[in-house]
Amino acid sequence: MKRRAAAEAMTLVADGMTLGLGTGSTAAHFIDLLGEAVRNGLSVKGVPTSEDTSRRAEAAGVELIEPDETTVIDLAVDGADEVDARGDLIKGGGGALLREKIVAAVAKRFVVIADASKKVAELGAFPLPVEIDRFAYGLTARRIREALVAQGLPGDIALRHRPDGAAFVTDGGNLVVDCRARRIHEPALLDGALKSIPGVVETGLFLRMAERVIFGTADGVEVLR
Ligand code: 5RP
């Protein structure tokens, strides 16, 4: 299903484009397909959203550039952890939310690829990742909890850890707090409240950013917008 969604997104790619390359297992399918197309003569440049993606794209033979080497990203393609009926997203399960959001926001077109299991009626069952600065992270986490509770949501948050028990650190050197909000009735309000807390670097709420969402299904693709 992930591969099908990635293959459909490939139909939007044209010669000469600069592409934002997302992070995660679905985005990895897109990168691999892009690599195949490059070997068959396609000429594109990629802006990776994580060190993992950078390594994968390099291995696939996709030419990479630094974000500041270009003024235009024609198309960004990335996965998602949850997608609601409006095309609003939770992202950041892989911890690349900040770079993913910077690239998606700059791109002329932001297209999401996902398997059909990512479709939800309301965002929030997937814990919302919030990237925070390391300085005074305990105090910032406490304010995040208070912001959740003030919106009637459970203040159930956890600092993300790696499998070896060490704190998870993003490519930008920050920490991630996962918020088990369960049902986010007002995503824009929550996003605003979280971003107003000094120490919060970015949230995993990607609201009104996706131009199109391509779901891979058991027997084809479904396109939202
Ligand atoms: C990484 C992300 C990913 O796009 C998201 O976690 C989906 O990953 P996958 O395609 O592996 O299900 O936001 O920060």
Topology (elements, then pairings):
Elements: H1 2-10, E1 18-21, H2 25-39, E2 45-48, H3 51-60, E3 63-64, E4 75-78, E5 82-83, E6 89-90, H4 97-106, E7 109-115, E8 128-132, H5 137-150, E9 157-159, E10 175-179, H6 187-195, E11 200-203, E12 205-206, E13 212-216, E14 221-224
Parallel strand pairs: 1-2, 1-4, 2-3, 4-7, 7-13
Antiparallel strand pairs: 5-6, 6-12, 8-10, 8-11, 9-10, 13-14
Bound molecules: ribulose-5-phosphate.
Subunit structure: Homodimer.
EC number: 5.3.1.6
Active site: 100
Describe this entry's structure for a reader:
The chain is of the alpha/beta class and about 220 residues long. The protein has helices at about 1-10, 25-40, 50-60, 95-105, 135-150, 185-195; strands at about 20, 45-50, 65, 75-80, 80-85, 90, 110-115, 130, 155-160, 175-180, 200-205, 205, 210-215, 220-225. The protein is built from six helices and 14 strands. Helix 1 (about 1-10) crosses helix 2 (about 25-40). The two termini are about 20 Å apart. Helix content is about 30%, strand content about 25%. It has a seven-stranded mixed β-sheet, with helices on both faces. The longest helix has 15 residues, at about 25-40. Helix 3 links the parallel strand 2 (about 45-50) and strand 3. It folds into two domains: about 1-120 and about 205-220, Rossmann fold (3-Layer(aba) Sandwich), CATH 3.40.50; about 130-205, Alpha-Beta Plaits (2-Layer Sandwich). The protein is globular, with a radius of gyration of 17 Å. The structure holds ribulose-5-phosphate. Ribulose-5-phosphate (5RP) binds near residues 26 and 80.
